[in-house]
Amino acid sequence: MAERTEAPDGGTESAPSYKSMNAFTPADEERRRGVRRMKATATGLLLFVALVYVLAKWASGAGAGSWADYVAAAAEAGMVGALADWFAVTALFRHPLGLPIPHTAIIPTKKDQLGVSLGEFVGENFLSRDVVRQRLRAVGIASRLGAWLAEPKNADRVTAELATALRGALTVLRDSDVQAVVGEAITRRADAQEIAPGIGKMLDRVVADGGHRRVVDLVVGRAHDWLELHADSVMDAVQGGAPGWTPRFVDRKVGERVYKELLRFCTEMRDMPSHPARGALDRFLADFANDLQSDTETRARVERLKGEVLGRGEVQDLIASAWTAVRSMIVSAAEDERSELRLRVRASLISLGARMAGEAKVQDKVDSWVEGAAVHVVSTYRKEITSLITDTVAGWDAEHTTRKIEAHIGRDLQFIRINGTVVGSLAGVLIFTVSRTLGA
């Protein structure tokens, strides 16, 4: 948050606003009233011992007896103690009586140095590797987090939060940017990867397992059915390709013969698993699979075909549109509480929580990860973390900061004045008594 301040040239400029330190809250005002009450009490006690001192000296001069001397000594020492502690307490926040005495008004004049010292203290005592490791190890994050995650209601909460974050991330991403990245990644990976050997190995396994035979059965069966339904079309095609000088009845006979042979071939191939044509097809596919893996020319032709296919606009559009389909699927799954995605995530979280809570090896591994991450952050960004303290303190207004600190700790400091008055009085009586005793 920034506030507008007047610049030297008469304009305005932005200045950092540290609202928490440069504004008094109702609680701060209540603390200040408490400080004023305690100041009045401590000052009243000082005035009281001063009055006692005056009355005791008057009584001593009037012949009231030796007790007046003891009371006067106690009151005199109490005044000294009260004044000394008043000076010490006041010197923390301002110059006593407005006099620029050295080493007074410590907080406003040494504010920045105190910030630096505080930053160094935090860095050395709280942001060291050993302290971070010991503290995290003592906390037992893995076991606690595991026990928490093992509760179904907590797993539901984490799943919902993850779904919300996922939806938000997918909403922020621009489809055009992601599509470009996905398309480039797929194309680059396809260009760098030779596909012929992989296709050859896959085809070799398919042929060895006989997986292609179901495809042959399907093709042959469909071909047989098509021939039965389109007999006239086949015969017309054969007759249309005959020479013009042959008699038409010969062309018809040839067409009928060709059709019958095609139908017989498809029927036999459909009904005979051991048909020679099937064996020839098996050998062809096996040879082709071997060529895809070892024949240089075949592999080069496949690579050229791959490049041509990938270069087509329709293929690039298909690759780019894959992201839209995937994003829509993920968003729908994230929004549906009963979707397979959310159910699997929830089950995985509960399972992970149970393992973290009950298995020592998992706990050690997770704790090691957490400790390593924390130590890395502390080691890498220690200067930035401590500079946050020093820069923040440096940005505070000195007078306002002084008043706010005094509001927080001033009430306790006034007890020092009161204790100084009481202790000074007791010390004064003791010293006066010892002096009288030794003098006697």
Coarse morphology: rod-shaped
Rg over alpha carbons = 47 Å
Structural category: mainly alpha
Share of β-strand residues: under 5%
What is the number of helices? 19
Order of helices and strands: EEHHHHHHHHHHHHHHHHHHH
Which segments are poorly predicted (pLDDT under 50) over 5 or more consecutive residues? 1-19
**Roughly what percent helix?**
over 70%
When the domains are counted, the total is 3
Describe the largest sheet.
2 strands, antiparallel
Q: In total, how many beta strands? A: 2
User: Kindly state the mean pLDDT as a whole number?
Assistant: 82
Distance between the termini: 73 Å
Topology:
Blueprint (H helix, E strand, L loop, with lengths): L1 E5 L5 E5 L2 H4 L3 H36 L4 H28 L12 H4 L1 H15 L3 H11 L1 H9 L2 H21 L2 H18 L3 H14 L2 H18 L1 H10 L7 H24 L4 H19 L1 H16 L1 H23 L4 H19 L1 H36 L2 H42 L1
Antiparallel strand pairs: 1-2
Can you describe this structure?
A two-stranded antiparallel sheet has the order 1-2. The N terminus is likely disordered. The chain has 440 residues and is mainly alpha-helical. The chain contains 19 helices and two strands. It folds into three domains: 134 residues, no CATH class; 80 residues, no CATH class; 155 residues, no CATH class. Helix 5 packs antiparallel against helix 18 and helix 6 crosses helix 18. 83% of the residues lie in helices and 2% in strands.
